[in-house]
Every structure is written in structure tokens, then in C-alpha cells.
Amino acid sequence: MITISLCMIVKNEEEVLARCLDSVADLVDEINIIDTGSTDGTKEIAARYTGRIFDFEWIDDFAAARNYSFEQATCSHIMWLDADDIVFEKDRKLLRELKEEMPADIDSIIMSYHLAFDQEGNAAAGARRNRIVRREKGYRWHNPIHEYLEVHEGQIYVSEAAISHKRMGDHSSRNMAIFQKKLLGNAEKLEGRNLFYYANELVDQGMHAEAVGHYEQFVANPGDAPDDRMLAYSKLAESYHHLGKKDKKLQSLLLGLQFGKPRADFCCSIGYCFEERQQYEAAIYWYESALALPLPAFHMGLLNLVCWTWMPHVQLCICYAKLGDLEKAHEHNAKALSYLPNDANLLDNKLKLEQALGIADVGDDAPSEGNPPC
Q: For the whole model, what pTM was predicted?
């Protein structure tokens, strides 16, 4: 059985650290807490779980701090978490089984990283990360901001277990400050992933016009990974949406399709472009295409997971209702409700559609003629 060193970097995390450690402490063999300058009760909370607490002088470099944390590990494998991460019970079970059954020569265990949730608590957005790695491989972190763990070789295992990120606070100002200090001595020196990450920070600051130039520079580089370029095109489309440039938005989404198989999130975004133009039949084509596509089996980039569940059904309800096909609208509204059974808008749609179709008694709030109920 493998053994696991949990390695975390923390600073002023007294509100969330116990929640994180409570969810994982009994599943690991060692906990290493690297404190980068806390002034609250973070260290005292950490001391309830481990005596392995180390100080690291903060130098505006997340990769350096994470590499230092990995250097403290003594077990066969290393797991990393952020303080505002949590392992839910269903994933705790999977993680326990994984630890007991995993061959010792597995070099990296990839796990889903759930980053947002719908009203029912289901994952709405997420990515995958190299979450547990074999210590003797010496894998290193790179990049001072938006750091990544480079796993360039070895035996890889994709686990069904997930880590959930329950973010506390807004880090966009901190991130931008690190960019300016570490990477923007000359903005023209930004290249590769840093162009993409900097554009994302500009979006977080509402600076969409500035972000566009950096996204376009990034996607123009043929050396970057196809998944990264595909995601950059989706972010470029998002910026064009905020700038009111709808033709550019659609163009960006279509260009993104050149880097791999169509994905449901791209299909939904393209469908919405046609829906905005009131081209409902074209929109229906793209939303129904989304429903036919499986979730990618191996994808490290960010995915809008609701595009594989309830989102296409909601939009198809609207489009079919606009075209007067209330039976189809009712069908897709019901399928959306199977994912979101307590959603007030979907329940209201259900009532109005059933009244319009004669499934229920018509009341005063029946949809008026020419005003589709979705």
C-alpha cells in the first residue's frame, strides 16, 4: 500500500483550514503545513493535526513555496491541497480505496478538481489535476503565479475521486500584483501560458479589451497545447461577448473547434450565439449536438460541466417554445428538472407548459398567446 504525505502552503487560513484537514487527515500518513506568513490563528489550528509545520518566507512565488513543501515529504507519494479545498464523503471513500489498492509504482494520480457547484450541490465547473505523485520522481512546480506541477513522464492513473474547491475571498488583486512584480517588468516578455493567465487576470478586473489582445497573441502560437488554445478561444469569445462584438464571439468559438473533437461546452456557447440572433433552429442543432457528446475521458483544462447535464435542456426548452413546439419544450424542461428538481424557474415552466398543453387545468397564469412560457 502506498503512503501519502499531504503538503499544503497556507497563509491566514484560520476560517477554512480545519474544514480541509478534517476531511482528509485520517486518509494520509503525514501532514506538512508550510506557512508563508500567517498573522491569524492558522498555525495554532494546524498544530491540532500535525507537528510538521514549517515557515517559508513569501517571495511572491507559488511554485517556489510548493516545491519547498514537497521537499518536506517523507512518504512514498505526495498529495497537495489548498486550504479552501475539501474532500466530500463520497470522494473520501474513493480516496481510501485508491490508497489501499494503488500499485506503488504509479507515478501520478490524476483527480478531478471541482471548482463551482449548482444549486443541488453537483459540480458545475471543473478541471483535472496531477493530485498525488510519487516522491522519488522529483516532479517540480513551475510558474510564480498559476503554478503547475509538470508531470512529463511516468505511469499515470486517472481516479474517480475528486477534490472540491470552496473558494474563500477574491484573489484577483493579489494575482495581478504578482504578475506585475514577477512577470511584467516588460509586458512584451510574456509568453506561453503566462499570456493566457495574464489575460484571465485582466478579465477578472473587467478589462476585456486589454484581455483580447493577449488571448489573440496566445492562440497565434502553434507551440502551445491544443487544449490550452481551445480554452483560450472560449475565453476570447467571453471577452468579445462583454464587448458586444457578437460576430467576433461566434468566430472565436468556431475557430476553437479546430483543436480537437467538439465539446458540449463549445456547442452550447455556439448555440447561444444563434439563439441571440433568434435563429432558433440553428441553436437547436448545436444544443442537441451538445447532448450527444460524452464528457472527455482525459482533459486537464477547465470544463463547464453543466453543458453535459442540464444546460442544453434548459436552452432547448426556450428554443422549442419560441418555435411553438410546446411538447418538445415540455420534454426538455422535464429533463432539466431531473437535474435541478427544486429550481423555481423550471417548476414555473412546468406549470405553464402543462397548462398550455392541457395536461393541467388552465388557470389565470396560463401563457398568453405569442408569449412562449420558457
A: 0.86
